[in-house]
Design brief:
291 residues; 12% strand; 13 helices; alpha/beta; binds magnesium ion; Alpha-Beta Plaits; DNA polymerase, domain 1; 43% helix; five-stranded mixed β-sheet; 8 strands
C-alpha cells in the first residue's frame, strides 16, 4: 500500500514568529538578520512585504537595503524560535507518531495509519494549516505525496499557507518540469555536474540512464535517479526514535561568496542553529568551541 506522507514547512519562520509577537511588523517590509552595525550581517528570514522587494535569505543586510532602504531589521531571538518550533511540532504529533523534524521549521509526517481517524492526506494537511494558524499565528505550507522527497517538493511548490498534493496520477505532470536542483540534497556542485550531462529538469534526470548517472556522480547519482523517479522509500522516523547518527552537519550554498568576519559569522550562526536543533532532539552535546 502507498504511504501518505506530509511535509510541513513554516513560512518565513523567524520573521513570522516576530510578526506574531509584534503584529505591527506585518505592515512593513521586515527581515530577521544579525549584526547590522558591521554592514555584514545576513538575512535569516523575511516577511511577505519584504519578499515583494526581492529580499533573499542569506544575502547581506547591506544588499537587502540596496533593494529596500526602509527594510526593518529585527535581531534574531533563537530561544523564542525554539519555543514556537516545539509548539508546532507538538501539534503535528497529535496526528501521528511518525514526525521527523528537519531543522526548526520543517517536518515530515507519515499519516498512512491516521487516515481512518482524521481523513485523507489533503484533509489532514488542510486541517493542520488551520490548527497551526489558530494556535500559533504561523502559516505553514504542506506537501502531500507517497514519498518524502515529493512531499518536500510539494511544500515548496505553493506557499505561503497552501496544500499541494503530488499523487500517483499527477506527479509526472507537475514534478517533471521542475528544475533538478529543487530535489533534496542537490546543491550547486551537483547542479553543475547535471548540467554537463544536459540535465536541467527532474524529468530529464528521471529519464537518464541510471548506470551512467552512477558512473558520473557515484552513489549520489543512484540516489538522485531514485528521487527523480519517485522511488524514494525512506521512512519517516518515529517521534522518539534515535537514529544511530555518526555525525550531524549542515551546509548551504550562499547566494554569494561571504567576505569579512561579520558576514561569515552570520552564515555560521545560521548553519549552527539547525545543527544544534538536531543535536538537542537527540540529546547529544559537543565540547564547547569558540566562534
Ligand atoms: Mg520554512
Amino acid at each position: 500500500m502507498d504511504r501518505t506522507i506530509l511535509h510541513c514547512d513554516c513560512n518565513g519562520f523567524y520573521a513570522s514568529v516576530e510578526c506574531v509577537m509584534n503584529p505591527a511588523l506585518r505592515d512593513v517590509p521586515m527581515a530577521v538578520g544579525g549584526d547590522e552595525e558591521s554592514r555584514h550581517g545576513i538575512i535569516l528570514a523575511k516577511n511577505e512585504k519584504a519578499k515583494k522587494f526581492n529580499i533573499k535569505t542569506a544575502e547581506t543586510i547591506w544588499q537587502a537595503r540596496q533593494k529596500c532602504p526602509e527594510l526593518v531589521i529585527v535581531p534574531p531571538r533563537h530561544d523564542l524560535y525554539h519555543e514556537f518550533s516545539k509548539r508546532v511540532m507538538d501539534i503535528y504529533k497529535r496526528y501521528t507518531d511518525r514526525v521527523e523534524s528537519f531543522g526548526l521549521d520543517e517536518a515530515w509526517l507519515d499519516v498512512t495509519e491516521s487516515k481512518m481517524l482524521f481523513g485523507d492526506g489533503k484533509h489532514i494537511a488542510d486541517e493542520l494549516r488551520h490548527v497551526v494558524r489558530e494556535e500559533t499565528g504561523l502559516t505553514i505550507s504542506v506537501g502531500v505525496s507517497f514519498c518524502k522527497v515529493f512531499a518536500k517538493l510539494g511544500s515548496d511548490y505553493k506557499k505561503p499557507d497552501a496544500t499541494t498534493v503530488f499523487s500517483r496520477e499527477n506527479w509526472k505532470e507537475f514534478i517533471y518540469p521542475l528544475p533538478a536542483q529543487d530535489l533534496l540534497f542537490v546543491g550547486r556542485k551537483t547542479t553543475a555536474e547535471l548540467h554537463k550531462l544536459g540535465i536541467t529538469t527532474i524529468g530529464q534526470l528521471a529519464a537518464f540512464d541510471e548506470r551512467s548517472l552512477v558512473s558520473h556522480l557515484g552513489k549520489a547519482g543512484g540516489m538522485l535517479y531514485r528521487y527523480a523517479n519517485g522511488l524514494d522509500d525512506e521512512e519517516v522516523r518515529l517521534v522518539n526514535e534515535k537514529d544511530d547518527v555518526k555525525s550531524i552537519g549542515n551546509g548551504i550554498t550562499f547566494s554569494h561568496d561571504l567576505t569579512g568576519e561579520g558576514e561569515i559569522r552570520g552564515g555560521i550562526y545560521a548553519l549552527c542553529d539547525s545543527v544544534a536543533s538536531r543535536m538537542r532532539a537527540r540529546d547529544l552535546n559537543a565540547p564547547p568551541c569558540r566562534l
